[in-house]
Amino acid sequence: MGRFRGTGTAGLILFALAALTAGVLLLFPQSRCPPAGAALSPAGREFMRLKNRDAEPAPSDFDERVTLEALSRPGEDRGRWSESRAGRVEAYVVEVVEGGVEAANCYSYRERDTHVHVAPRADAPRAEWVVLEVTPRVRERARARGLDWSASALRRELTGRRCRFEGWLLFDREHAGESENNAPGARGNWRATAWELHPVTAIEVLR
């Protein structure tokens, strides 16, 4: 009886989540997904707007102190940088993967962020990785300039190579507990810091 109730509850939860996702997709087809995504709270909508910025940073927006080494420097770093500034890093690309389905993109399965994981060397362990993200909006802007920033193209062209990236600084608070700087030594850590370049706005292969 207890197992039956548990299964029923889980099924109801899954059904409710599926219905909510379907409703969101009906309200916000990807072509009209707003900058605030499908976030429900004011704080969530503001966070999504940061994720979905698509303006190119002006030269005055760059914090010249930002480097891969500075982003990775050990220690609690929530207030180390400003989300109103941009940064520039040079690093080796360890891997390029598709991001998950999320509120920022109105839960679209087709249009997702691309994660570019970079580090001081191509074989660096996860605890040294810094996360950079290419968003659907920026990908579309790149396409208009004749650039292919799809996940498959970036994986093919960037993996194992040293590159220069530019983009807006973002503290991804949703992953702070999985970063070495904010949860030192935690078993599930897969990144050095929760600070990212998100979105990436420029990519240059150096070698």
Would you kindly provide a written description of the structure presented here, covering whatever features stand out?
The protein contains 5 helices and 5 strands. With 207 residues, it is of the alpha+beta class. It has one domain (51-205): Beta Barrel (OB fold (Dihydrolipoamide Acetyltransferase, E2P)). A 5-stranded antiparallel sheet has the order 3-2-1-4-5. It is globular. Mean pLDDT is 89; it is low at 1-7 and 10-19.
What characteristics describe this protein?
207 residues; OB fold (Dihydrolipoamide Acetyltransferase, E2P); five-stranded antiparallel sheet; 5 strands; 22% strand; disordered N terminus
Short account of what is shown:
The chain has five helices and five strands. With 207 residues, the chain is an alpha+beta fold.
Fraction of residues in helix: 25-40%
Distance between the termini: 63 Å
How would you spell out the order of helices and strands? Answer: HHHEEEHHEE
Shape assignment:
globular
* Content of β-strand: 15-25%
Low-pLDDT sequence parts: 1-7, 10-19
- In the CATH hierarchy, what is the superfamily? Nucleic acid-binding proteins
Widest beta sheet: strand line-up: 3-2-1-4-5
> Mean of the pLDDT scores?
89
Rg, Å, rounded: 18 Å
What CATH architecture label applies?
Beta Barrel
Write the layout of secondary structure elements.
Elements: H1 2-27, H2 42-51, H3 68-72, E1 86-98, E2 114-119, E3 130-134, H4 136-144, H5 151-158, E4 162-171, E5 195-205
